[in-house]
Design a protein that fits this description.
Layout: H1 3-11, H2 16-28, E1 35-36, H3 37-44, H4 48-61, E2 64-68, E3 72-76, H5 78-91, E4 97-104, E5 108-114, E6 120-126, H6 133-139, H7 151-169, E7 179-183, E8 186-190, E9 195-196, H8 206-223, E10 226-227, E11 236-238, E12 244-246, E13 253-254, H9 260-279, H10 285-293
Helix pairs in contact: 1-5, 2-3, 2-4, 8-9, 8-10
Length: about 300
């Protein structure tokens, strides 16, 4: 059972006092790997008997971990963090019901869900704790300068950045999922239908698909001032109608970033290399970059 499944199953059983304890642990994990039980007691205002009951209850639900060392401490589990985000999104009338997983990756899980008005959406849970903190620092430039950073904060920051990027590029006409809502490490966006390019063995019109990708890179660059900075066949989705969506934007940079040109060239090179190897479609990288950076056409 996934952490989201645990959170969905448990959410309706939690009481306000449970959420208070979960939030205290969440906040204090910025200072402790395991939050001392005495801190939880002091910050909650509950009696020791009440705290013991709540901590035992949350442990049985699988929402927190208990650690015994030089002191007794607690930490949120992935399911516990999921519960906090999901509760906030439900209360905000962003999400009403959760469905099946749409995709599970190294750094995120994406689930099907419904809004209160019945719209089908995608809910993305960022999971940066799945890879080592050292590898995350190497791959994610926006956290490289932070000495101490928990998996909660890594995932939350990734979600915040992705939601920020989607809000910048979506109104400009870039083919991305519509940004709908955000809380903690979770982003709610327009439904994603299709498969990533690397999963697609052949397409009837590879030249047109490549043109569409490069045009979206151009619109993001010229109209939104944004570069994806991690673009590849792994984060371009090909819809059933053979149009594309560009996903996974946490590593985006703006065009005034010191490494903007390097990152743009890397994005374009990744896509051109894939199309050459998979579909035998050849393009000159310098011509592609010149077209992307050329002032908006008429």
């Amino acid at each position: 059972m996934s952490s989201v499944d645990i959170a969905v199953k448990t959410l309706s059983r939690l009481e306000p006092e449970d959420f208070r304890v979960l939030m205290i642990i969440e906040v204090d994990m910025s200072r402790h790997r395991y939050v001392p039980e005495d801190d939880i007691l002091r910050l909650s205002g509950f009696s020791r008997k009440q705290i013991k009951y709540r901590l035992d209850r949350l442990s049985k639900f699988g929402l927190i971990y208990r650690w015994v060392g030089s002191y007794i401490g607690y930490a949120l589990s992935t399911a516990g963090y999921d519960c906090l985000a999901m509760n906030a999104l439900v209360k905000a009338n962003v999400i009403e019901a959760f469905g099946k997983p749409l995709g599970v990756g190294k750094e995120s899980d994406v689930f099907d869900a419904l809004t209160p008005n019945g719209r089908r959406v995608a809910v993305k849970f960022h999971r940066l704790g799945r890879i080592s903190f050292r590898q995350t620092r190497r791959l994610r430039g926006y956290i490289a300068d932070r000495r101490h950073i928990s998996w909660l904060y890594q995932s939350r920051l990734a979600a915040e950045r992705e939601f920020e990027a989607l809000k910048m590029v979506y109104p400009r006409g870039v083919s991305v999922p519509e940004p709908i809502g955000h809380n903690r490490h979770v982003v709610v966006m327009g439904f994603i239908e299709g498969a990533e390019l690397y999963r697609v063995p052949e397409v009837p019109n590879p030249d047109e698909v490549l043109d569409e990708i490069l045009e979206n890179v151009r619109i993001a660059y010229r109209k939104a001032g944004v570069i994806h900075a991690d673009l590849s066949e792994f984060n371009v989705v090909l819809n059933p109608d053979f149009h594309i969506l560009i996903i996974d934007w946490p590593q985006f940079v703006t065009v005034d970033h010191p490494n903007a040109e390097v990152l743009l060239k890397r994005d374009v090179k990744n896509i051109l290399t894939f199309f050459r190897k998979r579909f035998n479609v050849k393009r000159d990288i310098n011509e592609a970059l010149e077209s992307i950076k050329r002032p908006n056409r008429g």
